[in-house]
Task: inverse folding
């Protein structure tokens, strides 16, 4: 007599297997991939509902914040992180930059035919860890497979939902002349770490990506500021600090005056940028934030940043000025003055 | 950063600025041309203009390799990539140089041409080894600094017997360009461009030495001070030029002694001379045809010469009618004098080559200095 088989399935070969088109066909293999790779790693009560969407409780008296972010980084793994933790932290930060507490995440995976399952597993586990560390569950998701050559291993889009109390208004249009410009730490690590791994650029360095979820730092800053004193929060990712400040100046119709000597940077990042002919002001960060803060709150907020592990190197780098031209100007180290312009179409590789 | 931060020190900069202010005579004007884009960039990036007296003007010279690359040369690369189906490799900045038909290498890439940005000609060589069934062409540009690596790559390709690697050689020579400017009608006849001296090239001089400039001091009575690319290097060189002018001297002085000798790098010169030879004439954007001002691949290495391998002919293409890049590169006009500057010619959409590289006079002024043109107004 035949013995009944336990599951009548053969487990995925997570060591030697690769993604093929069948994993995206919507049949048994798709379900198995979701079950054995994604559901197992991300497990939580909402995901366990097993539906195409997640049914979520809505906190009373709060406004919702929603942000979405696509991640197409190459290489997938880099010193200090990988596309997985980057996809979680990046979206959590976009939610946190509105002064919100992130509650839920969704994740969409575009997998390229041929992607080793071992790599996918590593990425998914890194996402799961980042989500767990942040205390924000991944509650729903989707997976698609594209033919070889039509993706770059894996693209991940994450969406985050958070809550913010009624009346809290933090955003790019809130900066006012006289406000202080605070930066949470050293610039350029993420971009420099990724560039160090690029084929044809490879150089040996100790630089690691700064990828981190910033919502607890934001909470610590909000705790010491009165309502409205923190005007703008933004994470200077693609385009770097320079581009972020220009975005804010544009939205708020103000200028800024910076002091180059006040901008913190690690010597190894400075050296790598020098070597590659790049300006660290334009290099991406994934675990830093810029805060535009009312002048009377600046020292308390800066102290709160210094007390947090993600803000110990925070600095006041300048102030907001009245300027209809919306110039970001900077007093240089040698004592001259320059514009810190938008990033202009540099032929840089993809970094986030 | 050791050995670099010392040359960006604020206190020392103020000190040199004070000395320049003391030594310039209020009764006269001083106009110096910094030849290299590296100097132009340092001046703009650090706002050095703010530290100089009002009667001292810096003229941005033609020493930005991307800026002097004429449309016709980029077109040759485009034809190779679009029509001959080669893998075309080049340095990052070249990707955005405007060419004919609204194209650039970047735009051709979007249309399907296989164009790769490389940091070194050896990367192009590696691509040729890795893609034996494809033709790989390195579009080589630059002054004497980037020339030896190109020559080395050709030598290595010859040694390894590579059959699918060639170079589209657009290397140009610094001394010929300086002579051309000094003998231009604006300087010689009309006096519309006053040049009291030159801040001489940094990296170029490491290779060729300070010797080749000696003629300028003797024949044209113009002082040259060779300077490094850090802001303090440039400021110190300006101070040395002011002193020479005040003393009525016209000498070759070397501020960049930590890297430049009179003889230069003999091995680099030898490799270059072995593989490359001087062309009869070459078109420079802005300067036009300049005799004996560029290099071509020697007949012994003809196999690696893309111009011969693909039977390419050079066809000159005029710049946009209103583009003032030519006049700007000769020091006749400033970026702000150009109608296109900041209106339809911007770093994101360069019409002229001076807007392409951050070493170009227009891009440097746009990106770092345009606040000086526009008074800050209240919102």
Result:
């Amino acid at each position: 007599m035949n013995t009944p088989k336990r599951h009548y399935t053969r487990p995925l070969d997570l060591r030697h297997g690769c993604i093929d088109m069948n994993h995206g066909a919507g049949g048994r293999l798709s379900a198995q991939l979701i079950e054995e790779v994604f559901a197992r790693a991300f497990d939580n009560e909402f995901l366990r509902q097993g539906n195409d969407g997640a049914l979520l409780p809505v906190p009373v008296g709060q406004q919702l914040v929603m942000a979405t972010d696509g991640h197409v980084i190459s290489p997938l793994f880099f010193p200090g992180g990988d596309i997985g933790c980057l996809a979680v932290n990046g979206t959590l930060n976009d939610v946190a930059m509105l002064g919100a507490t992130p509650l839920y995440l969704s994740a969409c995976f575009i997998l390229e035919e041929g992607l080793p399952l071992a790599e996918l597993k590593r990425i998914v586990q890194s996402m799961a860890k980042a989500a767990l560390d942040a205390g924000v569950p991944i509650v729903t998701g989707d997976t698609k497979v594209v033919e070889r050559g039509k993706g770059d291993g894996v693209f991940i889009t994450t969406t985050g939902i958070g809550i913010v109390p009624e009346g809290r208004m933090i955003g790019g249009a809130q900066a006012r002349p006289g406000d202080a410009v605070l930066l949470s730490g050293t610039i350029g690590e993420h971009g420099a770490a990724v560039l160090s791994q690029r084929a044809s650029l490879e150089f040996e360095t100790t630089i690691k990506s700064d990828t981190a979820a910033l919502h607890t730092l934001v909470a610590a800053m909000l705790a010491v500021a009165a309502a409205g004193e923190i005007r703008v929060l933004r994470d200077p990712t693609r385009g770097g600090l320079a581009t972020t400040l220009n975005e804010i100046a544009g939205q708020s119709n103000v200028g800024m005056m910076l002091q180059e000597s006040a901008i913190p940077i690690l010597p190894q990042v400075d050296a790598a940028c020098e070597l590659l002919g790049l300006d660290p002001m334009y290099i991406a960060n994934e675990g830093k934030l810029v805060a535009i803060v009312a002048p009377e709150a600046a020292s308390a907020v800066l102290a709160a940043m210094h007390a947090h592990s993600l803000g110990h190197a925070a600095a006041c780098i300048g102030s907001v000025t009245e300027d209809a031209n919306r110039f970001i100007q900077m007093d240089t180290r040698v004592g001259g003055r320059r514009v810190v312009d938008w990033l202009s179409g540099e032929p840089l590789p993809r970094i986030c | 950063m050791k050995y670099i931060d010392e040359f960006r020190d604020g206190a020392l900069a103020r000190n040199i600025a004070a000395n320049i202010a003391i030594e310039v005579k209020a009764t006269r004007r001083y106009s110096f041309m910094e030849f290299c884009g590296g100097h132009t960039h340092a001046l703009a990036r650090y706002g050095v203009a703010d530290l100089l007296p009002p009667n001292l003007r810096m003229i941005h010279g033609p020493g930005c390799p991307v800026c002097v690359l004429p449309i016709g040369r980029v077109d040759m690369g485009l034809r190779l990539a679009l029509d001959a189906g080669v893998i075309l490799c080049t340095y990052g900045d070249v990707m955005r140089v405007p060419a004919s038909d609204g194209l650039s290498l970047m735009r051709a890439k979007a249309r399907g041409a296989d164009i790769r940005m490389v940091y070194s000609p050896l990367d192009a060589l590696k691509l040729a080894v890795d893609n034996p069934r494809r033709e790989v062409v390195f579009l080589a540009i630059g002054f004497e600094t980037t020339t030896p690596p190109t020559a080395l790559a050709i030598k290595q390709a010859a040694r390894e017997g590579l059959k699918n690697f060639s170079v589209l050689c657009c290397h140009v020579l610094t001394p010929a360009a300086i002579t051309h400017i000094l003998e231009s009608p604006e300087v010689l006849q009309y006096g519309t461009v006053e040049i009291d001296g030159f801040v001489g090239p940094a990296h170029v001089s490491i290779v060729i030495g300070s010797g080749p400039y000696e003629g300028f001091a003797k024949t044209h009575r113009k002082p040259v001070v060779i300077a490094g690319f850090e802001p303090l290097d440039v400021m110190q060189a300006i101070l040395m030029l002011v002193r020479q002018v005040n003393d009525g001297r016209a000498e070759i002085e070397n501020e960049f002694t930590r890297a430049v000798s009179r003889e230069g790098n003999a091995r680099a010169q030898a490799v270059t001379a072995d593989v490359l030879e001087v062309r009869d004439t070459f078109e420079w954007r802005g300067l036009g045809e300049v005799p004996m001002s560029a290099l071509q691949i020697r007949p012994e290495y003809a196999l690696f010469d893309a111009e011969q391998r693909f039977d390419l002919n050079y066809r000159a293409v005029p710049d946009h009618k209103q583009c003032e890049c030519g006049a700007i590169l000769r020091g006749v006009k400033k970026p702000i004098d150009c109608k296109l500057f900041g209106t339809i010619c911007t770093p994101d959409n360069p019409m002229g080559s001076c807007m392409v590289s951050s070493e170009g006079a227009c891009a440097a002024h746009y990106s770092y200095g345009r606040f000086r043109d526009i008074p800050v107004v209240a919102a």
Q: What stands out?
A: The interface with chain A takes residues 1, 4, 8-10, 13-14, 17, 44-51, 92, 95-96, 106, 117-119, 123, 231-232, 235, 346-348, 366-371, 374, 376-379 of chain B (CB under 8 Å). The mean pLDDT of chain B is 93.
